[in-house]
Amino acid sequence: DCRQYTNRSCEECLKNVTCLWCASSKRCMEYPVRRILPPADLCELRSARWGVCWVNFEALIIAMSVVGGTLLIMLGVCCCCCCCKKKSKKQVSGGPLVVPDKDDERAAREREKRRMRQEERRAEMKSRHDEIRRKYGTV
């Protein structure tokens, strides 16, 4: 029973994970599991401790809100950046030409090099076949 730790220390009370420590009244009580946050008539949020003695519910709520808000903002910015980047790569018909970035230019150069090598190989094969045809008189 958590009530046996009333008027003792927070550390003693919170050794049992089902207990809630109220610092203002120095009471140890069962955590109200049916509610996420302890009701104000039971203990104020700034005085309520659960799990560890150095974090109160008020600070925990504020910290979680800040972290959650920051993550949502970062997610939104990333989504916007990705969408804008995709839109800028697509060329709208009749719209202005989009300046290619370095990756696009590098890819285009590589494609051109491969195309040139392929044409050279085709020309070599054609000349070999022509030589063979001339040698055997099938031309």
UniProtKB/TrEMBL annotation:
<keyword id="KW-0325">Glycoprotein</keyword>
<feature type="compositionally biased region" description="Basic and acidic residues">
    <location>
        <begin position="100"/>
        <end position="139"/>
    </location>
</feature>
<keyword id="KW-0812">Transmembrane</keyword>
<protein>
    <submittedName>
        <fullName>PTTG protein</fullName>
    </submittedName>
</protein>
<dbReference type="GO" id="GO:0005737">
    <property type="term" value="C:cytoplasm"/>
</dbReference>
<dbReference type="GO" id="GO:0005634">
    <property type="term" value="C:nucleus"/>
</dbReference>
<feature type="domain" description="PSI">
    <location>
        <begin position="1"/>
        <end position="54"/>
    </location>
</feature>
<dbReference type="GO" id="GO:0016020">
    <property type="term" value="C:membrane"/>
</dbReference>
<dbReference type="InterPro" id="IPR052304">
    <property type="entry name" value="PTTG1IP"/>
</dbReference>
<feature type="region of interest" description="Disordered">
    <location>
        <begin position="89"/>
        <end position="139"/>
    </location>
</feature>
<keyword id="KW-0472">Membrane</keyword>
<feature type="transmembrane region" description="Helical">
    <location>
        <begin position="59"/>
        <end position="84"/>
    </location>
</feature>
<keyword id="KW-0732">Signal</keyword>
<dbReference type="InterPro" id="IPR016201">
    <property type="entry name" value="PSI"/>
</dbReference>
<dbReference type="GO" id="GO:0006606">
    <property type="term" value="P:protein import into nucleus"/>
</dbReference>
<keyword id="KW-1133">Transmembrane helix</keyword>
